[in-house]
């Protein structure tokens, strides 16, 4: 990608371990690296600028697959999650298949209970966090103070306004399309106002 296109909000793709992923440039780190957001996975990562490529048009219009989520009925003891709570949560997730039970979908955030069913007794995350002294179970869904800062999908992904039969709808990427001389590739930038 030309240097002029390497800027925050640019939708493109990156190759990592011989696989291609859609990314949005989140911030430029230095001359060699950028931090990117994966709209189909929901995570941030630092990658080399030389790994970035423009996307073909057909991949630009696909909706994002990541959905902002929050653990239901639980809140941090203080205003933000402690390092102990974060480590415990990561340990609970540890490359396992989990069961997610949807509590509600409000303001573009999916609130769900997570449960590990791989053992004889089901393990509910909110209970383990409470029992470990890392969280309060509050019976309502209150995203933590730092939720938006820690969740870049709030910048780049919005829920679709169309809902049929109260079902969840895939989020759409807020994109402004630009044409390039090569009709097979296109670049896309988010409106500066949306950042």
From TrEMBL:
It comes from the Eukaryota. Gene3D superfamilies: 2.40.50.90. SUPFAM superfamilies: Tudor/PWWP/MBT (SSF63748). Pfam families: TUDOR. InterPro entries: SNase_OB-fold_sf, Tudor, Tudor_domain_containing. Residues 5-62 form the Tudor domain. PROSITE patterns: TUDOR (PS50304). This is Tudor domain-containing protein 5.
């Amino acid at each position: 990608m030309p240097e002029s296109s390497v800027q925050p909000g640019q939708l493109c793709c990156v190759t990592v371990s011989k696989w291609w992923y859609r990314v949005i440039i989140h911030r430029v780190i230095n001359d060699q690296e950028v931090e990117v957001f994966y709209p189909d996975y929901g995570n941030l990562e630092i990658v080399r600028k030389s790994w970035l490529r423009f996307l073909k048009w057909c991949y630009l219009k696909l909706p994002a697959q990541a959905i902002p989520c929050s653990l239901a009925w639980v809140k941090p003891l203080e205003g933000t999650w402690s390092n102990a709570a974060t480590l415990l949560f990561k340990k609970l997730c540890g490359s396992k298949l989990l069961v997610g039970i949807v509590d509600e979908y409000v303001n573009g955030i999916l609130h769900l209970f997570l449960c590990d069913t791989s053992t004889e007794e089901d393990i509910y995350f909110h209970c383990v966090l409470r029992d470990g002294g890392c969280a309060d179970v509050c019976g309502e869904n209150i995203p933590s103070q730092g939720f938006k800062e820690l969740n870049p999908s709030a910048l780049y992904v919005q829920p679709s306004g169309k809902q049929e039969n109260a079902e969840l709808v895939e989020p759409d990427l807020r994109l402004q399309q630009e044409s390039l001389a090569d009709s097979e590739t296109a670049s896309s930038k988010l409106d500066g106002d949306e950042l």
